[in-house]
């Protein structure tokens, strides 16, 4: 599938023109608050390259999110296979990252609903996970709105972050495909 549509967005494959606004988004302190750090333009481009390779290898990935009305790139919403080891891996993560000026409008939830429907209905995935640091209440609310559940026994320390890092501890949410 080349695109997912919602009422207000197109979730589509990435274009060369997305790289610059994505790099700007990855330098926004508010967007990257719960990430290890801001990304340089080069690091942001490497992430887009990884996303495109993920699509090629797995047939799914984080979609570029575009507003239908203005065709403006606003971030990403989609699926990815995490690149680290944990008790719950291998798995498929549903994730989002939107420019801060689009927060509070329900866009992440709207896009995540479309991605979850596709993951369960078309891709026939048995389960999706999502994770973040405990303090990230915005993402946790999106996870809850999707119907994802949290069991503190699943919480984990992110292995890509060093011991003692303030963002190392994560909460895990799960959503199983309904039969």
Could you please describe the fold and organization of this structure?
- The structure is a single chain.
- Helix content is 27%, strand content 25%.
- It is α+β, with helices and mostly antiparallel strands and 179 residues long.
- The protein has one domain (3-176): 3-Layer(aba) Sandwich (Aminopeptidase), CATH 3.40.630.
- The strands form 2 sheets. It has a 5-stranded antiparallel β-sheet, sandwiched between helices.
- α1 (19-25) packs across α2.
- The protein is globular, with a radius of gyration of 15 Å.
Structural descriptors:
179 residues; alpha+beta; Aminopeptidase; 5-stranded antiparallel β-sheet; 4-stranded antiparallel β-sheet; globular
> Would you give the CATH topology?
Aminopeptidase
Helix content: 25-40%
Largest sheet, order of strands side by side?
1-2-3-4-5
The top level CATH class name: Alpha Beta
Q: Tell me, what's the shape?
A: globular
Structural class: alpha+beta
Cα separation of the termini: 23 Å
The tally of beta strands, per DSSP, is 9
| Percent of residues in beta strands | 25-35%
Write the element-wise H/E pattern from the N-terminal end onward. Answer: EEHHEEEHEHEEE
Task: Profile the largest sheet.
Answer: 5 strands, antiparallel
Q: Regions with pLDDT < 50 over 5+ consecutive residues? A: none
Relevant CATH superfamily: Gcn5-related N-acetyltransferase (GNAT)
Return the domain count.
1
| Radius of gyration over C-alpha positions, nearest whole angstrom | 15 Å
Q: How many helical stretches?
A: 4
Mean pLDDT: 96
CATH architecture: 3-Layer(aba) Sandwich
């Amino acid at each position: 599938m080349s695109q997912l549509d919602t009422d207000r967005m197109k979730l589509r494959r990435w274009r060369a023109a997305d790289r610059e606004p994505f790099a700007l988004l990855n330098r926004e302190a508010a967007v990257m608050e719960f990430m290890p750090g801001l990304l340089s333009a080069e690091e942001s481009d490497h992430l887009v390259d990884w996303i495109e390779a993920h699509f090629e290898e797995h047939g799914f990935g984080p979609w570029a999110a575009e507003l239908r009305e203005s065709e403006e790139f606003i971030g990403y919403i989609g699926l990815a296979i995490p690149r680290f080891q944990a008790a719950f891996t291998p798995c498929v993560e549903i994730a989002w990252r939107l420019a801060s000026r689009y927060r509070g409008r329900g866009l992440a939830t709207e896009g995540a609903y479309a991605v979850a429907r596709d993951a369960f209905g078309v891709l026939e995935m048995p389960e999706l996970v999502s994770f973040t640091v405990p303090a990230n209440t915005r993402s946790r609310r999106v996870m809850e709105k999707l119907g994802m559940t949290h069991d503190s026994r699943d919480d984990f320390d992110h292995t890509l972050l060093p011991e003692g890092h303030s963002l190392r501890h994560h909460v895990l949410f799960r959503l199983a495909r309904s039969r």
